[in-house]
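Here is the promised in-class demo. Please do not try to memorize the tokens; focus on the logic of going from shape to residues.
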């Protein structure tokens, strides 16, 4: 799968996810950040929870050497499974939040 196609799948998955995140009653917003030049894609919580500022990455995926590196995944079912459902092969997905010595124990790419 080409980088452009992988990029589109990542953006579609994160866009869908951003629409479903409940915010509660605090003054929070969900920010979808897409950087197609440097290939970083994120969902952030930002705003205020009472007197406390919130700036929290919820999901971060980047593309390195035509693979989706999942750096942070705060979802229950996993962004990797959603990418797979769109046709991205496991060999193109790296669970980068796991240390390199644990990645061979997953069914995904190691790097």
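The designed amino acids, position by position:
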């Amino acid at each position: 799968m080409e980088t452009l196609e992988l990029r589109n799948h990542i953006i579609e998955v994160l866009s869908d996810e951003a629409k479903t995140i409940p915010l509660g009653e605090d003054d929070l917003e969900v920010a979808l950040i897409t950087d197609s030049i440097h290939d970083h894609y994120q969902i952030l919580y930002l705003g205020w929870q009472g007197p406390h500022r919130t700036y929290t990455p919820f999901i971060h995926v980047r593309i390195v050497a035509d693979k989706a590196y999942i750096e942070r995944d705060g979802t229950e079912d996993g962004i990797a499974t959603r990418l797979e459902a769109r046709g991205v092969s496991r060999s193109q997905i790296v669970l980068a939040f796991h240390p390199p010595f644990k990645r061979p124990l997953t069914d995904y790419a190691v790097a």
